[in-house]
Amino acid sequence: MAEKIYYKGVKRFVFSLMILMILSITLFISSLFIGSSSINLYKIIHMLSNIFLNKNSSYNDPMMNILDLRISRGIAAYFTGSALGLAGLLIQTVTRNPLADPYILGLSTSSLAFVSLSILLFPDIMIFRWNLVLIAFLGALTGFFITIGLSKLAGGSSVAIVLSGIAVGSFFGGVSHLLLYLVQARYNIYIMYLLTGTAQTVLWRELPYLIYPSIAGVIISLLIYKMLNAYLYGDIYSRQLGFPPGVTRTISLVITSLLTAVTISIVGIIGFIGLASPHITRFLVGNDHRFTIVLSPLVGGVLTLFSDISVRIISYAYGAELPLGVITMMIGSPFLAFLIIKRLRE
Amino acid sequence: MMIKIEDLEVWYDSIPVLRDVRLEINRGDFILIIGPNGSGKTTLLKTIANLVKPKKGAVYIDGKESNRYSPRSLSKILSYIDPHLSREMPTTVLELLMTARYPREDLFKIKVDKEFINKINEIAKTLRIEDLLERRLDQVSSGELQRIIIARALLQDPEIFLVDEPTAFLDLKYRFEIMDLLKKINREYMKTMIVTTHDLILAGLYGEKIILLYKGMIRAAGDVEKVLKKDLVKEVYEIDVEEIYVNNRKILIPINMK
Ligand SMILES: Nc1ncnc2c1ncn2[C@@H]1O[C@H](COP(=O)(O)OP(=O)(O)OP(=O)(O)O)[C@@H](O)[C@H]1O
Ligand SMILES: [Mg+2]
């Protein structure tokens, strides 16, 4: 009986993994074709082979530049989603709250407020990206602790956390808006896009900031998957199995805040991916972190890349660039509404 | 594994909860702890499991102070079996049961042993929860949850079981079944059992050594004859009781308020 259920779970994991891989690759390849100028298949294969064979001969080709941008944009969208997929999973586990998400709990906007302030004060910081990421990281942690503190005052229920997060998030959202407006007015650089993130502006050399932390996050989380599983059943339970819950909390919070921070400092606020990905993942394979840590980033990547492709199609049709964060918000907020209704009914 | 408790004093914030607790528990003992609500039973179990820090005194396990053990090595020796699990995140019964072996497994091991899965089958069958394995943990009845928690404890298989109110919420049949099971494990594998209960009838039927806690102190300790005395129970629980003998065992039947 138990072995049947267990192996069914493993099979579902392998199956989901394969489907998500196929979806990822299909979406990525189709993303190369979609945009304001059309590139045909022959051209793409030709140029891709040039890239991989390191022949820079056709680098002057304007088509080549467009393709270059599309590849970096696709990778940026995908890894932003992966980072948020993992961040969302971990923050839900740490708060033991299925409604949690870096955006809903106010981490994203507090992180952005810190980033905006530091750019306003030290515009040079844009060049030192790791410093910016560090500041974004501190901002995310700050937002988290304010939200948790506030929710404790409000009784600490799962809905109290969400409401506190909305209060904290809106406050820092307003602050970010103001600060970015000042940055734009003072230094004459276009930066308001961070408010509703976009992958359009991401450069090749910025991709490592998204890729490495995501991969490192997955590896470290997998190393503590047993601690995370034990943590789900309460602090006492976790301690009685020999895992200090404080350690689990600290590691997960650092990863969550770091991943939120990199997405904020490179693409800006992308809401709700962190909420939806873990739920879709749990629907596929249940709540064993051994599986969810691997799948949630893939689900996040697929969702975000899909959203970005939709953005490109809409932008192409109407001739003006639509921010990515707008689409994820449209997909994600009905999800939140559904979860809240389910929660309050129980 | 021998437990020795010396001059224990435990406080929550500024309230004393346990005072002057001195105990010696030998390997293979079967101990029942009784006492009114708030008398400190749960706190005593948690202190033994090093989940609560004493203000004074200490718990020694095999001569070594319990807070000197690493959390992981302590988790192989003893287990505080908590009736209150957090069930806020949706997980299945099987997912909970699979965490039971974590103390004995390598932290990074991903594979699950076939032998462990067989063990889950066996124990699930004994406790008749085999049809619940796929069920979500927040969708089982209190009695079913109690059995799941006991099953999980058996899978963890520590040397010392600290079982907090295993018979609460259970119907009459399962009360006896769980107590029989705990006793069987105690006998067959020489596991030390320390069990709290509010059920004085069960205490009479299963008690070997009984500890009566009252206002944070050990009011009486010893065998059934010594602890389950009419006057003592009247004083501590503020109820009237009648003594009867069934199969040569003394049982106290609560009658009404005194
Ligand atoms: N975390 C806590 N913080 C403060 N006081 C506590 C805490 N836990 C328990 N107490 C208090 O300590 C005393 C002993 O509680 P404990 O849970 O050990 O009693 P118990 O004998 O297990 O009671 P019950 O039969 O109701 O389970 C009670 O007065 C209780 O109010
Ligand atoms: Mg208790």
Task: Summarize the helices and strands and which ones pair or pack.
The complex is a heterodimer of chains A (346) and B (258).
Chain A: H1 2-33, H2 41-52, H3 62-95, H4 107-121, H5 129-153, H6 158-187, H7 207-223, H8 225-231, H9 235-240, H10 245-266, H11 273-285, H12 289-318, H13 324-345
Chain B: E1 3-12, E2 15-25, E3 30-34, H1 41-48, E4 56-61, E5 64-65, H2 71-77, E6 78-81, H3 93-98, H4 114-126, H5 142-156, E7 160-163, H6 172-189, E8 192-196, H7 200-206, E9 209-214, E10 217-222, H8 224-227, H9 230-237, E11 239-246, E12 249-257
Parallel strand pairs in B: 3-8, 3-9, 6-7, 7-8
Antiparallel strand pairs in B: 1-2, 1-4, 4-5, 9-10, 11-12
Helix pairs in contact in B: 4-5
The structure holds adenosine-5'-triphosphate and magnesium ion.
Structural overview:
Chain A has 346 residues and is mostly helical. Chain A has one domain (2-345): Orthogonal Bundle (ABC transporter involved in vitamin B12 uptake, BtuC). In chain A, 77% of the residues lie in helices and 0% in strands. Chain A has helices at 2-33, 41-52, 62-95, 107-121, 129-153, 158-187, 207-223, 225-231, 235-240, 245-266, 273-285, 289-318, 324-345. In chain A, helix 4 packs across helix 5 (129-153), helix 4 packs parallel to helix 6 (158-187) and helix 7 runs antiparallel to helix 12 (289-318). By secondary structure, chain B is an alpha/beta fold. Chain B has one domain (3-257): P-loop containing nucleotide triphosphate hydrolases (Rossmann fold, 3-Layer(aba) Sandwich). Chain B has nine helices and twelve strands. The N and C termini of chain B lie far apart (42 Å). The mean pLDDT of chain B is 93. Chains A and B meet through helix 1, helix 8 and helix 9 of A and helix 2, helix 3 and helix 4 of B. Residues 41-42, 164 of chain B line the site of magnesium ion (MG).
